[in-house]
Amino acid sequence: MDSYQCMCNCFDIILLKDTKVSETTEFHQSYYRTSTNRDDFGYVESSLLCYKGSSPHPQWMDIAAGSYSTLCKVIDNGQLINTSRYVSNGGYYIMEYDVVLAFGLMELATQFAWEENVS
Q: What is the pTM of this model?
C-alpha cells in the first residue's frame, strides 16, 4: 500500500452545485489515507476544486476537464500525523480526517478536522 489509495481523476462532492448557504454554514466530508510508513502523514495537502460544468453530479474529471479549477488548497504540516493509528492485521497506518468548508459573510475558510484519542 503506497501513501494512500485513490481513483485518479475522480471528483468527490463536498457541496452540491447551486446549494444555498448562509454565513454560518459548515460542510464536512470525511476522508482517509493509508500508508505502510507513518511519516508519510507528516505533510498533507488537499486541493479543493470548483466544478463549473452543467452536470448536477460530476464524478470524473477527465469528462469535461475544462470545467474544473482549483479553488484553494488545505495544508497540514504535521498535526494529522498524531491522529494516525496502526492496523496490525493489515500492516499499515490509517489517518482519518474531515475537510471542512466554513462560510462567513465575505469569505470561505477551509480546514482539516479530526477526532483525537480514537481507537
A: 0.80
